[in-house]
Hints:
The chain is mainly alpha-helical. The protein has a domain at 105-231. Helix content is 45%, strand content 0%. Helix 4 runs antiparallel to helix 8, helix 6 runs antiparallel to helix 7 (163-169) and helix 7 (163-169) packs across helix 8. The longest helix has 23 residues, at 171-193.
Amino acid sequence: MTPAPGPATPEAAGAGTAPPEPTGQAPGPSAVAAGYAVPEGGGRASDPGAVPVGYAVEGAAYGGPPGAGGGVPPAFLPPSYAPARRGRVARAYLRMLDRIPGWLAPLAVLGCIGGAVGYTLLSNPTDSAPDAAPTCVLKLTTGLDCPGCGGTRAAWYLLHGDVGAAARHHLLFVFAVPFVLYLYVAWAAQRAFGRKLPQLRIPPVAIAVFMGAWLAFSVMRNLPWAPFNWFYV
């Protein structure tokens, strides 16, 4: 008597058979595991090479939400994770950026700095009337120094080598100038000449401390007692 055949194993059932033909429905987990990838938003199965950049193939890692095995099968990716397509305006803008020489941006910033320096030297803010244009609205209406009052005069004194007078007119401005100049030089050298200078890394805590010191300086310089009134301009 011949024994009744038992249930076929997956290896035996799949031996000698061709992979299933792609259908119009998104494949399930078994189809994904077998190597069938789907294009953006589901639909007919396609070659894995046609899967958009960023999708997972055969359970590979994907930068989206964590799933089984550290990846998300492409058949189950929501439409919001589909890579955005650039329009004509975006492509034209990117092509224009590629054609701009690297030295143009540093030169434009240097022109703005040169214009500000030229205006400061020609206008001589240390010899102007309090209500001369341009003027500070807060200073004109209340008589109090705003957080930026004295900055132009401090720049004028720095350009003439008088650091003490510059610090009296705006201490925080004098403190920040060397850091700002170095940041510009490092950025311009890398952008225009491809030379890397040591980067000046300013942590967020340092920025918060500087802003707090600036606020405290703006309040204390308006106090009518010594030594705070020395900074009043």
